[in-house]
């Protein structure tokens, strides 16, 4: 690769050095902070020879280079002297968001970390529907009752989960926040308010302040408002309490002041806001009927792109808690997911680019069967543009069909083929057929529409002159027949498919094939005998080469480069020889997680092209040095 040429083209295509506020790099990406991202043509950047992809994330314009990123950064630095500049934040926009927009953004940001717990509980609810249907589980037995508790726990105590997430969003004490949520859900409080409502009396605090009745289980907005106010209560109490009394007086005053505010003012206000928001959304459904579902299904990808899809979760939860099902947003979401998968499948079949066919194929599978659409959305349909239109058409048609036949959803597990059972209505056997036909129609229409509309295929070369000097692909040298290389896990934890990593750079195999481990403790060991090629200065990633010729990238967490080395403690240095099992890196897993970072650790064979086959061979719990990747 001609690093100087690549650097010049990249700098030109991001708007020149005058558009660059700062530039840093991690193990695989150039991370630009730009004055104006809107002037950058993503497609032009992607066509640059040596660029694997681009991402706009966390205020950074990220260009994925791969293992050669340091060399490209060095050439860029020669052009702009970026390393001598203090890393600054991008200029703040003067545009002010409306109150509804700010509210939706806040709800969405708080809901996102809670989604895994909700999905886990929702999937148990799916089992509670499926197992009795096939005669495996008795609905009158103890097992069913216990599973019901497991499936309902996260929903009933939703305010506690939301309080924890909101405390990070608003920068307040997590345990105070959780305590307020627990007060709102205390059985005695619920019993007191229910008894008063039934008796037609009013509960009064201090004898004269009325406490409005509201149910806070399954709720979201009331606790968000309570935790928002908690940050100000904390600051106030901190100012008025003497230093010598802070360890006991401050906690008491915080709870004593905040709890009444939550129970008397903000809790009821939040309940009202939640009801209003729900009424507004479902009034659209009431007025437009099944046409509303088709519209939602067609525009849902753009809702996901805006990061607003999680804001619908409390609305769906409230509806299911009230009437037992949801028949609007969940239907549109299912059709949107299926359409993204179908459009990606069409691209996979029609594309002539071998590498991109694989990316589109894996993205289609992820969307159709797991309901994970980000790889399909960002890596395929949005990137090619025209397939996005095909996906929207298919989703809209599927939504119209499902809405016309009054399809309902009884859970909020990720909408996908494997979770179709959550759309099955008890005592209405035809509901399964309706759900299956909705999925089928969505897939068929989106697939055909994408094939008809077509798309401009991905071209790897930068431009015609680059084709003349194109570097030859690495020669694939299959191992002798029957011989395999086994790569061990650098950490104990849970092994997951690379496709499930929440970063398209890894999940789409842009950097190579491999797997990922969610570590259970903050320690990495060498998976084989070899050399540390690069121990990144921030400690969040390690590049190794084994004696067997395998080049391995171990990347601890997502976007953890932003920590600047905080919580990471390298035990080895670049160029150092290591033996299998040697501790190469230690890190504070809990602290990194508390900072809001996903600790999932991809383990990538970065020279995948040098082998005939690289595949994961483990899924689920693994011990340190268990085999997780096999190379042939």
TrEMBL record:
* Gene Ontology biological process terms in this record: phosphoenolpyruvate-dependent sugar phosphotransferase system; trehalose transport
* Location within or outside the cell: Cell membrane
Q: What is this protein called?
A: PTS glucose transporter subunit IIA
* Segments traversing the membrane: 144-162, 174-193, 213-233, 253-277, 289-308, 359-381, 432-455
Show the CDD domains listed in the entry.
Answer: PTS_IIB_glc
Q: Name one GO molecular function term.
A: protein-phosphocysteine-trehalose phosphotransferase system transporter activity
Name the domain of life.
Bacteria
Catalytic site positions: 26
Q: Can you give the residue ranges of the PTS EIIB type-1 domain?
A: 4-86
Q: Which UniProt keywords apply?
A: Cell membrane, Kinase, Membrane, Phosphotransferase system, Sugar transport, Transferase, Transmembrane, Transmembrane helix, Transport
One GO cellular component this record assigns the protein to is:
plasma membrane
- The residues covered by the PTS EIIA type-1 domain are 503-607
Q: Which residues form the PTS EIIC type-1 domain?
A: 105-471
Question: Which SUPFAM superfamilies does the record cross-reference, listed alphabetically?
Answer: Duplicated hybrid motif, Glucose permease domain IIB
What NCBIfam families does its record include? PTBA (TIGR00830), PTS-II-ABC-beta (TIGR01995)
Matching entries from PANTHER family are given as: PHOSPHOTRANSFERASE SYSTEM TRANSPORT PROTEIN, PTS SYSTEM ARBUTIN-, CELLOBIOSE-, AND SALICIN-SPECIFIC EIIBC COMPONENT-RELATED
Q: How does it sit in the membrane?
A: Multi-pass membrane protein
